[in-house]
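Query structure, 425 tokens:
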């Protein structure tokens, strides 16, 4: 249902909306339904507290006494973006390796030379929780300016119990002090740390016997993720880690088939993971298995672009197979250099073959479903959280005109938090 039954008063009313992309309806969107944005022309959107109380035609909206009114000026309003895969809990930088990549070095070459994840681990282990929290808040600010109102944030640059706990505590602290809604994920299986390279099994034992139980005991994460990849964690190792996490109450996510086929997509489907991510080399069998299992494909075109991988995930084949496709930034210090979901949408359209409508669904409702927050976020319907973006025009196309500044206003939980491209309190 698009329309609510609003009270006589509201805290915020947005009038003169040329087109409201409500995305009202069931989640996730599959196949041809990914092109359905449930548009409402000449619309009104109203919220009270943090929740939407009306989203529908202006002619059907009863009189409302509002504490604050916004005039959309005939522009389009879309749901707040949902970034379902990020690595923004880190310290330090990896600027040197980015220069090397521009000179032709590959991801694997840089990692073999001690760069990549391992370099971020060294800096993150040395950082106090307060510094990590400040860094996360600053990156959340960058995302908010790009229209993101919900974000998944992974640990994974600690790779030891104390440092992983510290990272997750920093994620929790940053979330409590920021308008962006944060979904925390434990990614202790991001890489095998240097000190365990001679005995990989000991690190897997540490994950399943100590880290996962402790994170669960402290209630610091909703998901557990594994980097299932050749040279990182094998399918068998990933299965053991994920089955342990599931037994401790975590929902599952999987980094799968990014640098080559490993069977990660098949594993994610077999274990009932909510999402398999990256998927540049996913097989036809893996895609079919994900469709049967209802496992979301969270695709990260910005990462493939910045890593110069030379290919992108087969988004069209996934949609045609009935897989729910989501988009995310993979924001991280080495490969996901842009915090912008509109940029990820742009690459999704022009390099992966998505339509504008499919890209918006993938960055909102389907992304929310991949995080199991679709009852609160991802569409504009009465009862859901009042997270939305007012564009500068009525054209959806403006979102993929990189550098134009298509966003006028961002509202998170019913509060105006970005106005005219500036962060406001």
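Result returned for the query:
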């Amino acid at each position: 249902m698009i329309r609510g039954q609003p009270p006589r008063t509201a805290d915020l009313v947005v009038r003169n909306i040329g087109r409201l992309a409500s995305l009202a309806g069931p989640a996730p969107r599959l196949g041809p339904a990914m092109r359905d944005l449930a548009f409402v022309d000449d619309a009104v959107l109203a919220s009270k507290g943090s929740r939407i109380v009306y989203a529908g035609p202006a002619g059907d909206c009863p009189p409302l006494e509002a504490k604050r009114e916004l005039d959309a000026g005939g522009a389009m309003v879309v749901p707040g973006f949902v970034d379902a895969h990020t690595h923004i809990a880190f310290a330090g930088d990896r600027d040197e390796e980015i220069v090397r990549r521009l000179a032709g070095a590959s991801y694997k070459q840089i990692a073999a030379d001690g760069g990549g994840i391992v370099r971020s681990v060294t800096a993150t282990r040395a950082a106090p929780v307060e510094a990590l929290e400040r860094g996360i808040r600053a990156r959340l600010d960058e995302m908010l300016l790009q229209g993101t109102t919900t974000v998944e944030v992974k640990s994974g640059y600690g790779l030891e119990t104390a440092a992983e706990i510290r990272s997750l505590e920093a994620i929790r602290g940053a979330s409590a002090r920021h308008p962006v809604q944060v979904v925390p994920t434990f990614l202790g299986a991001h890489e095998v740390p240097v000190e365990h390279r001679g005995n990989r099994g000991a690190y897997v034992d540490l994950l399943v016997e100590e880290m996962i139980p402790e994170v669960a005991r402290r209630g610091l994460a909703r998901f557990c993720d594994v980097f299932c990849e050749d040279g990182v964690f094998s399918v068998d190792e990933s299965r053991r880690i994920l089955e342990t996490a599931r037994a401790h109450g975590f929902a599952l996510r999987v980094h799968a088939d990014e640098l080559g086929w490993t069977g990660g997509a098949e594993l994610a489907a077999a274990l009932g993971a909510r999402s398999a991510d990256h998927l540049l080399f996913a097989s036809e069998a893996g895609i079919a298995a994900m469709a049967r299992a209802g496992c979301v494909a969270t695709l990260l075109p910005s990462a493939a672009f910045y890593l110069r991988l030379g290919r992108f995930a087969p988004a069209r084949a996934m949609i045609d197979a009935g897989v729910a496709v989501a988009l995310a930034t993979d924001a991280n210090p080495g490969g996901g250099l842009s915090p912008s979901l509109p940029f990820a949408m742009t690459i999704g359209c022009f390099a992966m073959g998505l339509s504008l409508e499919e890209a918006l669904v993938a960055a909102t409702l389907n992304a929310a479903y991949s995080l199991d927050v679709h009852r609160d976020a991802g569409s504009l319907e009465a009862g859901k959280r009042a997270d939305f973006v007012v564009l500068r025009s009525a054209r959806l196309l403006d979102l993929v005109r990189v550098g134009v500044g298509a966003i006028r206003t961002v509202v998170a939980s019913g509060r105006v938090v970005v106005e005219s491209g500036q962060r406001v309190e």
